[in-house]
Design a protein that fits this description.
The chain is of the alpha/beta class and about 230 residues long. About 40% of the residues lie in helices and about 25% in strands. It has two domains: about 120 residues, Response regulator (Rossmann fold); about 100 residues, Winged helix-like DNA-binding domain superfamily/Winged helix DNA-binding domain (Arc Repressor Mutant, subunit A, Orthogonal Bundle). The chain has eight helices and 14 strands.
């Protein structure tokens, strides 16, 4: 999962960032409105943690911009302001949750997972793709009931494909989602191909159909038609 922390408090943003990275997420920080908007225009995030009071602009205005850019991005407002009108306005503008400072990082983590499940997994912690089952909480994958051992990046890659199934994903977007925006400074992103090759090989060996298609000159697509029997 890839997250953006929009928070001008250096101590709090670093604390959240350190915690989320320790939990295995890709996490980035924006300290003001302009930096946050630039990142939202250039990259895709699963969940944005948004403070209402940010320099160089208004957090609620940023929320409006975000919902135009990508409606699928989950948003949790984190703010010291506990005024009812701010909370209501944020939820009306499309925020998925509201957390008042101070808060425990474990509670924030639980809310992030809940928002992700609602936005991408229909509220479940499992994703069923015909013979493939992805258990997001345990980070486990099985094919026809048999576990498949994947590396952390292979699991994240499969989940990214699964939640964007039948859509073409460029190598750049895959690299950014799995490694963050620092990939812009790399000479090439050929390593994406190797990860996809390894993931495809493991799934096929376990008995899965080859759903990963190469769209030459563009990127990759997880092309699948779901059977009605593939979900509970």
């Amino acid at each position: 999962m890839k997250l953006l922390i929009v928070e001008d408090s250096i101590d709090l943003s670093r604390s959240i960032d350190t915690y989320l990275r320790r939990e295995g997420y890709i996490s980035e920080i924006a300290m003001d409105f302009r930096e946050a908007l630039d990142k939202l225009l250039g990259f895709t995030y699963d969940v944005v943690l948004l403070d209402i009071m940010i320099p160089k602009g208004d957090g609620l205005r940023l929320l409006e911009e975000l919902k135009v850019i990508n409606k699928q991005t989950g948003v949790i407002i984190i703010s010291a302001k506990d005024a009812l009108d701010d909370k209501v306005k944020g939820l009306e503008l499309g925020a998925d949750d509201y957390l008042t400072k101070p808060f425990h990082l474990s509670e924030l983590h639980a809310r992030i997972k809940a928002v992700y499940r609602r936005k991408h997994l229909d509220g479940d912690d499992k994703l069923y793709l015909n013979e493939i089952t992805i258990h997001t909480e345990r980070m486990e994958v099985s094919v026809s009931g048999e576990n498949v051992v994947l590396t952390k990046k292979e699991f994240e890659l499969l989940l990214y494909f699964a939640t964007n199934r039948n859509h073409v994903l460029s190598k750049q977007s895959i690299a950014e989602h799995l490694w963050g925006d620092h990939v812009d400074h790399l000479d090439n992103i050929d390593f994406v191909y190797q990860h996809i090759k390894n993931l495809r090989k493991k799934l096929i060996k376990a008995g899965a159909e080859d759903y990963i298609e190469t769209v030459y000159g563009v990127g990759y697509r997880f092309a699948i038609t779901l059977n009605t029997s593939s979900s509970n």
